[in-house]
Every structure is written in structure tokens, then in C-alpha cells.
Amino acid sequence: MGLKGTKLYSIFNGKCPVCHEGKVFTYKRVYSFKKFDKMEEKCSHCGHKYEMETGFFYGAMYVAYAVSVAFSVAAFVSTYLLFPDTPYWAYIIIVVATLLGLAPVTFRAGRLIWINLFSSYDPSKAKK
Known about the structure:
Strand content: under 5%
Mean pLDDT: 93
Distance between the termini: 21 Å
Helix content: 40-55%
Radius of gyration: 17 Å
Low-confidence stretches: none
Largest sheet: none
Shape: elongated
């Protein structure tokens, strides 16, 4: 991606918000259910500490909730537009399946968005 230096680059690539070089999550695979939530303590490139204080990522739950709501609305609207005669119980199943299937994605997205709200890109640390 040619967005290096932007918060979007860090969020979509799972990179350190300060240098955009080190990885935030230990494992790249999102759907490794035993490992999807494992984070590095510090950036391997610039040394930026990801959890700035105890309980820092509690706020990420609210961001993950918003991302989950967006996925739910998208699943509902796309089902309604593609299959307008769908019974109400099918909408419930589709939305719940979407939420369960994308839970690791919303977890990671919430944390990456949250950490990028409080950290900004520093080109001098990227060259380090």
C-alpha cells in the first residue's frame, strides 16, 4: 500500500503506529483462534510500548463494538437488498453468524484503531 505514514496503513497492515515497521500482533493469521489476540509488548523496530498504561485497551472494546455494529448493518442491508423476501429469523441467523465469524477481525480492528488514536507516525523512528 502506498499509504505509509498514515493511520490507515498502520490499521490495515497491523503495523506499529509510530514507525510503521514493527508488527503489533505476534501472529499474522487472524483465524488462529488460540493465537489471534496475542500482541507484542513493544515494537521490535522502534521500541514503542503498545499498552501505554494498565487497562489501556479497555477503550478498544467500544471501537470493536462500533465495528461489529457496522458489520451487522452491512450484513442485514446486503441480505435485504439481495433477498428481499427473507423471513425475519433468517436475518437473525445471518447477523449472528457474521458477528461470530468476524469476531477476531473486530477484536484486532478495535485494538489497532484505538492505539492509532493515541500514537502518531514519526518518520525519524521509521529510519532508525
